[in-house]
Amino acid sequence: MNVAAPLESPHVPVLLDEVLDALAIRPGETHVDGTYGAGGYSRAIAARGAHVIAIDRDPDAIAEGRERIAREGDDITLIEGPFSAMESLLAQAGVGQVSGVALDIGVSSMQLDRAERGFSFQADGPLDMRMSRDGLSAAEFLNTASEEDIADVLYRYGEEPRSRRVARAIVAARPLSRTGELAQVVRRALGHKPHDKKDPATRAFQAIRIHVNGELDELERGLEAAEAVLAPGGRLAVVTFHSLEDRVVKQFLRRRSGVEGGGSRHRPRVALSVQPGFAKPARAIRPSDDEVRRNPRARSATLRSAVRLAPAAQLRENER
Question: For 6, which of 56, 164, 203, 267 is 20 to 30 Å away at the CA?
Answer without folding.
Answer: 203
